[in-house]
Amino acid sequence: MTFDLIAQVEVRDRSGAGCVAENGFCPDWIADNYDRYVDPFFEHVLLTVVPVGIGFAIAFTLALLAHRRQWLVGPITGVTGALYTIPSVAFFFLLQPLTGLGNTTAIVALTCYTLLIIFRNVITGLRSVPAEAKDAARGMGLTDRQLLWRVELPLAVPEILAGLRIATTTTVGLAALAFLAGAGGLGAELDRLPSFKSNVVVAGGLAVLLAAILDLMILTLQRLVTPWQRASA
Amino acid sequence: MTDHSSAAPTDEKSDRQAATLEFRGATKRYEGQTDPAVDELSLEVPAGEICVLVGPSGCGKTTAMRLVNRMIDLTSGDILLDGRSVTERKPAELRREIGYAIQQIGLFPHLTIADNIATVPRLLGWDKERISARVDELLELVSLDPSETRERYPGQLSGGQRQRVGVARALAVDPPLMLMDEPFGAIDPINRERLQNEFLRLQQEIRKTIVFVTHDIDEAIKIGDKIAILQKGGKLAQFATPAELLMYPESKFVEDFVGSDRALKRLALQRVRDIDLWKAAKVRVGEPAAEARAKIADSDLPMALLVDDGERPLGWLSDRAFHGERVERDIRSPAEPTVELDDILRDALADLLTSETRYGPVVDGRGRVAGVLSLEVIGGFLNEAPVEARSGVELVEEP
To answer: Lower CB count within 10 Å: N or C terminus of chain A?
Structure first.
């Protein structure tokens, strides 16, 4: 595969002059080869969205549990915090005996990294709900469940989505190392020709672009669902 | 289905106007504390009356209020709402029938004003049209413009406006009982006074049974039909009408709490029309002087008040006015200050004190002389037993 690529590079080099040979930044080469980044880009999207989605489901559930039983906050923060501190390279290798090489390993590891951030932000969001709003809600006859879904969670949305944004951008970055676990993504592309500037710029640039797009999407979502935050006298 | 759910509460409306409330030896004791927070509290609030719980901080007044809707559960004793124990009820259901307004208001910042007010109607499953109509009605009731306010968020309103929305929200399903914990506590003095007056006017319309918690004795006197003064340890020090409380404090504690200006506070509870005024000699120009002198002899002060054909006061006549056969227009001093029958006695006293004469004609709604008010008249009133206790509601009543 690597050989093919170099062969192709060399074939095209006739038009790109010495640029490619010198591993330089070659706009012509990029224009001719952008399609080789399409599949890795969407793999990278998958390696970001799936772990963040699963991580959110797990962390959100844990946060709701811990919200009712505050004593759980400490232990859950401890465990997710410990997962967060495992160096990613080590994590990918440690998981391989269990899940083998490939996307599964990468997704499991990346999911683990999102837990702490999302869990902590959901808890912080729920705690930031004004006590008087909760008191008024209970005093008007909302049950605990109604209080949670109609008052506490809507008011925690900005904090929760802030956590989701950090988790997402972090995961885009970490997913670039997922090739170590045998998964694809832009990281694999980077790793293929790490000293070829054109490749590094395009693959790296696409990762940054992906992070920016996802971040902007969540930010837009947040603005849509929290109209009260923008309303001012 | 929709018809049924929207019709049912309307039918109940007639008997939802107001409920009676009774504390029967209500006690709250927290574990690990020697003194109870509320100690054997017994009192009855008749339907449609405002009962103010007042006392220094830590006296258990808020705890006592929160026992009613089971935000806090009783340790012993009972609380009866319309004769039925609150302990038999599911807390959430009970609370939906009891209006709840607190000092911090607790509006939901993420919901529009309309949605905030619609909270309890939605819990009870009202249909959309009914909720929408009710929201408009309530906003008007608390003097807010529905079209301007409905779609705004709490963060866009002033403190006073938010307070009104809080009251409107508490009234949403026309609850027979309202609990209000220092609802005007966080408002500046000028707006607080306005909101209190509005609140009393509102109460005239809605006639709810209200438990009102405050630490401010002046607010208690102004608002309450009955006042329960609590002291540390959650003990009831006295339960009485404002006038009784000011006249006959039962203990040193109550006397101190009510304040050394008790007499002045009583004046704030009474209107000029409530006390016996001096009779005035009303005299017209051209009237026979002998007749005028007879009127003076029959009146409570040694001079005559010149009035016009509409019996409006023109001024106090000098002796020279009676030298001829007929009364002449010879005014010694103007008819000032002029007091109205509907003036609060305390304000009238202030007028008298700032004038030179220390007495002044009292006029009715049409400007006709009804008598004379003087410092002596007020002094005499303060030495009497309280006539009948006037509630704050009657006091703001407009003629």
So the answer is: N
| Interchain pair A140, B153: CB under 8 A | no
Residues of A in contact with B73 (CB under 8 A): none
Q: Name residues 267-326 of chain B within 8 A of A (Cβ).
A: none
Q: From the CB of residue A145, how many other CB atoms can be counted at a distance below 10 Å?
A: 8
| Contact between B37 and B211 (Cβ < 8 Å) | no
In CATH, B2-260 is 3.40.50.1970: no
> Residue A123 belongs to a domain with what CATH number?
1.10.3720.10
Using DSSP bridges, classify how beta strands B38-45 and B50-54 pair: parallel, antiparallel or unpaired. Answer: unpaired
Gap between the Cα atoms of B380 and A90, Å rounded: 94
Q: Chain B residues with CB inside 8 Å of A133's CB?
A: 106-109
Q: b/e per residue, B225-261, with b = 16+ CB within 10 A?
A: bbbbbbbeebbbbbbbbbbbbbbebeeebbbebbeee
Under 8 Å CB pairs connecting chains A and B tally to: 83
- Structurally, chain A folds into a number of domains equal to 1
Q: Does domain B273-383 have CATH number 3.10.580.10?
A: yes
**Local confidence pLDDT in tens for the 399 residues of chain B:** 334 444 334 434 444 578 999 999 999 999 888 889 999 999 999 999 999 999 998 899 999 999 999 999 999 999 999 999 999 999 999 999 999 999 889 999 999 999 999 999 999 999 999 999 999 999 998 889 999 999 999 999 988 899 899 999 999 999 999 999 998 887 888 888 888 888 888 898 889 999 999 999 989 998 999 999 999 889 999 999 998 888 888 999 999 988 878 888 888 888 888 888 999 889 888 888 888 888 888 988 888 899 998 889 998 988 888 888 888 888 888 888 888 888 888 888 988 888 877 889 999 888 899 999 988 888 888 877 554 444 444 444 443
Please tell me which of the candidates B94, B102, B153 has its beta carbon nearest to residue A132: B102
User: What was the ipTM of the complex prediction?
Assistant: 0.79
A205 in any annotated domain: yes
**CB contact (8 A) between residue A155 and residue B109:** yes
**CA B60 and chain centroid, separation:** 23
Please state the pTM of the whole predicted model: 0.76
Whole domain around residue A62: which residue ranges? Answer: 41-226
- Say yes or no for a CB contact (<8 Å) between A136 and B102: yes
